[in-house]
Structure formats: structure tokens, C-alpha cells
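Quick one, T. Sequence first:
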Amino acid sequence: MAEDPLSHPALDKAAGEEFLREAFQIILEEAVRKGTDVTEKVCDWRKPQDLQEILDLELRSSGEPQQRVLEHCRDVIRYSVKTCHPRFFNQLFSGLDPHALVGRMITETLNTSQYTYEIAPVFVLMEEVVLKKLRELIGWGSGDGIFCPGGSLSNIYAMNVARYQRFPDSKQTGIWALPRLAVFTSQECHYSVQKGAAFLGIGTDNIYLVGVDERGKMIPADLEKQINKAKSEGACPFFVNATCGTTVLGAFDPLADVADVCERHGAWFHVDAAWGGSALLSRRHRHLLRGIERADSVAWNPHKMLMTGLQCSAFLLRDSSGLLQRCHGANATYLFQTDKFYDVAYDTGDKTIQCGRKVDCLKLWLMWKANGTEGLEKRVDRAFEFTRYLAEEIKKREGFQLVIEPEFINLCFWFVPHSLRGKEGCADYWERLGKVAPAIKERMMKKGSMMVGYQPLGSKVNFFRQVVTNPVVTKQDLDFFLDEIERLGTDL
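C-alpha cells:
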């Protein structure tokens, strides 16, 4: 009689554990040790067609030997960008916090979904503790919130909740029963505001862009002007988005003045503090967000400046009446049964538009437990100090020119090669200067020495935007950064 295959496990647990041990060793050596080693490359650059051949990405009908799979693991790490490297300055996130990493590993291992207490009891309780702490830093004694898959969705949630709060019937009747809604945001806002207006059926034509001053901050008087203009055109001004830490310049809108305008016109006041929110942890720098306690909602990404690792984005509400639940709730009876044996108020998953939801609170909680609020404050203050150091060094060096004096930790500057120095009056000066940053970026990536972003902004041609959030960065790394820019661009 043939043996019943269902009588035995289909996985070899001993082999699986051995694979995990070897894979974790590869992760520790290749991703953690080498990934944070300043003598290693930030990236091992390859052209797409070459990389496809190296990686052997083809999926086949038969499985491969364990050692071959482990080699795939090594290759994946080797040819990926090391965002934890001390000379990675390319994004608004970088670095590697070991406690947050362990939190991510535990989350992935437990593989649960944070929608009900029955399936995620520890994390449901933990999420509320973390969200409460973030709300307290904003200045709210109560409120609500949820972790979202990124700051963009947090901003979209804010827009949706604001619309529901103003027009609760729209959840059933849809956009057909609504007046023409108007959204207001600065010219330097994150592009997720446009995405949100399009996604929610409001329409990008109904976004009124508010002027900014020379530092990229929203001008409250122009906000008032744009709101009055929208009213005269028959629109309903329902949502104002202010930004704390714009993506390029790192500007902070004047929140208190914006709040005054919102109160006069009855508009929902949302603050996109995805980037700049972590300055609230610093007693020296939290003044940048003065007035944020008057906001109706806030987006805040600890995965950026605090280094919790992707993704960790909080959508926070001052409202404590259950507005978030009413706006998004669908009451699925197979998941959110009302006759459970415990208090179903702990089943928080219906506050989101998601069903399955990753656990994003553990990595932040574990990191906070290990470092304390004081440790996180030092991390924030260190980033500011490094930006000030680098700004002063740039002023001392010929060929380096600040775009703007930094207010936050975004350091924006041009490098002017020898061929363009003293030629500011030439007709093609700015056109030629705009080609310098892309050329230097190409060279540094192919060399693997470091990574930094660049972009144009309005009438300003391409310039570098350097950001330091990684605590393992030293002054030597920043000196190297400036020296390398010179080395790579001196002959342009």
C-alpha cells in the first residue's frame, strides 16, 4: 500500500533551519557589515542587460540546490544599492538601526496582518501606544490614527477624511452629489497631493497652487487670495495642505498663519510632515513646526529621519470621535464580527482602505525602547549639526555655491567646474551648469564611491541635494563627499 504523502510535512524543517542560518550569516556579512563599511562600494553598478545575465532571474520548473539559492542571495545583496552606507546621501532615508532591523525581521517571521486583535494582539496594542506618543509630540491630548504604507497614502487619507467630514453622505452617493471641491497646497508640496486629487475623483484641475517665498515657504496671504478666488469660481474650499520639510529645499510652511486662514474659511488643515515631523523630537528644533498642534491631521514618516526602515508612516488625527472608522469602515462580517468574545474596539483594521496590513509599529517601538526619546533627539540634533558643518565647509571652497541657506537638513548646492568659473555673465552659463550635476552623478555611481541626488527647481537648473540622516556618518565622510565632487567634476 502506497504511503500517504499527506501524513507527513511537505517541508523539511531541519533543512529550512540550516538554510536560514546560512542566509542570516550572508545578510550579516554582506548587507550589514559590508553595507556599512566605508571602504566598500555604495553600489556595484551594472547596465540592466548585464545585470539580468549576472543574476539569472529566470524562474524554472525545477528547484535549485540550496547552495545555489544562497549564491542568489549573495548576488541580490551585492548588486543592490547599500542605503545604510555612510556615503549614501541620495534619498530622504538612509542608515541602519539594528533594533529597528530586528523588529522588521520579527514582523516578517510572524507574518501576521494588523487588522484584528485576534490575529495580532500584541501589535494592535503596540500600535496605539506608538501613535499616542507621536500625537503627544504634536501637542494633542487625544486623537486617532493608523500606520499607512507611505506618506503619499497618509496624505491621500487626509484628503478623503476631510471630504467625508464635510460631506458624510458622499461615502454612499459618491462625487455626483458633491459641489466642485477645491484643494490648496503650496507650489513646493509633495506630488502625492496631485495623485490624491486624481485618485479621489476631485481632479487635479481643482488644486489651487499657493505661492511660496524665496525660501520655498507657503505665503499665507496668497492662500487667502486663492481661497477667495475658488469661492468666486463656485468651488468649495475644503482642504488645505501645508508642508513641514519640502522634498527639495526642506522648507517649513508657517503653520500658525496657515491655521488662521483655515479657521476663517472652515477648511480642513492638514500638515504633511512626512519629512520634517521628526524635528518634533528635538527641543532645539521643534520650533520649526510651531502651530502643528492646530492641524486637523498630520502625516509623519519615522522611516526617514529616524531610520526605522521602510516602511513606517503614520497618519494622525486630532479627532477622537471615530471619524476615521466611519469614513473607511465597511464592516466585513467575516472579519469584523460584532459577537466576538473580546472587546471588538480593538479590531482597528477597518479604519483603513486596506484589508491585509503589514505591522509597521514594532520596528519603531523596539528602536524607541532601545534608544529612548533622548536618544532619538540626539539622532535628530546630530543630523542638523552635520548639515551646518557641511554648509560652512561649502562656503570655504571655491567652486561650491549654496542654492539657499539650509533651514532643515536638506543641503542644496551647485558645483561649478573650472571651465565655468567667472563666466556667470555668458548666455549659456546656466544651461551648461545644469549639465554638471548629472555628469558627476553618473561618474560617482559607476565608480561606486557614493550617491547623492540632484534636481532642477523652477528656474533653477540642476543642483545637488545632500541629506545626512545616518548616525554612522562622520566629518571624514562629509569631507570625502566634497573632495569627491571636486575630483569627479574638475575636468567638466
